[in-house]
Design goal:
Length: 368
């Protein structure tokens, strides 16, 4: 890293630092907490910001409330009061502990309702995002809690029961990197199925729960991808570590702008293939890839950016796209969008034509 900085032009140092995620240190004392707007819907894209573990909440806590009895719809809420005795969570009885708690919550301006503990989710903090792993708990302790939750859930309606089982299964295939091995996660999943069979008294339970588990695995993978995109954004960097992690902007794909940028990328690609100049072939290829990446960002819901660095533009996209973009950026050099055009981006007496020859053009073409 130091050698690269010493060798590059002074005006390119910031680009090198940005590509390596090195930024200016700022004290957390200047950062502010994120305050959720009670009643505001949390887009499904940001469900990875909700912790799946069951919790006991204090008055004044902000939480996510699952307001639907079928497909989950989450809104920001605030704990106003404990409806049931808080001591219930200390008794370790078979009623499910945290799940049996009831709360009065605010879900809008002057609007409140009563919610069960299993319908409320702790909101992930900025520190949780930066740490990016779960604390490993003893498997026996986890299975004990699963058993309590399953016995409690089976006395509820089918919809409420499935809501609890869904959270338990998601805990077994968490979206964040954790220390549980695949074998341990399978053990916990099998334990859930075993408890369900013992309660229900039939082997048909597996037919009921297996499709749910398969669906949740896909959901977990999607949440993991959304978390990766979120981690590469700057949305949470200005908030204190103890703050609730704020939802990101541009929550939905923008297909119209994605199509516009892709059309221009294809035009630049065709122009590059027809150009006999090595320099302009490199430049037009870079333009085509840059605009293609911006189209992909719109399609993924990442929004617009004025950045021209291919490595930075590929962040949050698939690993294959990111790898190829970084490969080309390294081939053309840092800040290639200006180095391909301006003589003052090169040490005198060199100009762009001297730096980019036939070999550069050939490799760049094959990268498209």
């Amino acid at each position: 890293m130091l050698d690269e900085i010493l060798e590059c032009d002074l005006r390119d140092i910031q680009v090198v630092l940005d590509r390596s995620d090195i930024c200016e240190y700022t004290t957390s004392l200047t950062k502010q907490p994120f305050i959720p707007k009670v009643g505001e819907i949390i887009p499904s894209r940001h469900s990875h910001l909700l912790a799946q573990e069951f919790e006991c909440f204090a008055i004044g806590d902000y939480v996510a409330y699952d307001s639907s009895t079928s497909e989950s719809v989450f809104v920001y809420a605030k704990i106003l009061a404990h409806v049931t005795d808080k001591e219930i969570q200390l008794l370790e009885s078979t009623d499910g502990g945290f799940l049996a708690m009831q709360y009065e919550i605010a879900i809008g301006q002057n609007v409140s309702t009563t919610a069960e503990g299993y319908s409320l989710y702790k909101l992930v903090t900025v520190a949780d995002i930066e740490r990016d792993f779960f604390e490993k708990l003893d498997i026996c302790e986890v299975e004990y809690k699963i058993g309590k939750a399953m016995h409690f859930a089976w006395d509820l309606s089918a919809q409420e029961r499935d809501k609890i089982i869904k959270r338990l299964l998601l805990q077994c295939c968490p979206i964040k990197r954790c220390e549980y091995t695949s074998l341990e996660r399978k053990e916990m999943t099998d334990y859930i199925f075993g408890i369900a069979k013992s309660i229900h008294g039939t082997q048909d339970v597996e037919k009921i729960l297996a499709p749910l588990l398969q669906c949740l695995r896909k959901e977990s993978q999607q949440q993991e991808a959304n978390r990766e995109i979120y981690m590469y954004s700057d949305i949470y960097s200005s908030y204190d570590g103890d703050s609730i992690a704020p939802p990101g902007p541009n929550c939905y794909p923008d297909h119209q702008n994605a199509e516009r940028w892709l059309m221009q990328a294809e035009h630049d690609y065709d122009a590059a293939m027809d150009d006999s100049s090595s320099l302009w072939t490199c430049f037009k290829c870079h333009q085509a890839i840059e605009k293609g990446l911006k189209a992909a960002r719109y399609f993924a819901g990442l929004g617009s950016t004025t950045n021209h660095d291919l490595g930075s533009l590929s962040r949050g996209l698939t690993s294959n796209i990111s790898r190829n973009a970084m490969k080309l950026e390294n081939h053309l050099g840092p800040n290639a969008s200006t180095r391909l055009r301006y003589p003052d981006r090169h040490q005198s007496p060199n100009i762009p034509c001297d730096a980019y020859g036939a070999s550069h053009a050939s490799i760049t073409k094959h990268s498209l």
